[in-house]
Structure formats: C-alpha cells, structure tokens
Amino acid sequence: MILIIGGEIMVYIFVGATIVIYAGIGTYVVKKTIKS
To answer: pTM of the full predicted structure?
Structure first.
C-alpha cells in the first residue's frame, strides 16, 4: 500500500514537472516570437 501510494506521488510529481517544463519552454518561445 505504501509503495503504491509512493509510486502514485512520484508519477504526479513527474507529470507536474513535465507540464511545468513544457509550459516554460512554450512561454519562452512565445515571448521570443513576439519580440521578433
């Protein structure tokens, strides 16, 4: 049970980090495109 919960938490952290990274890249590209 603990392992399953811990695994789920790791998955949520991984997914959240991935979303944040893609959002950051997307924001950077948009700002760079607007400035150009």
So the answer is: 0.56
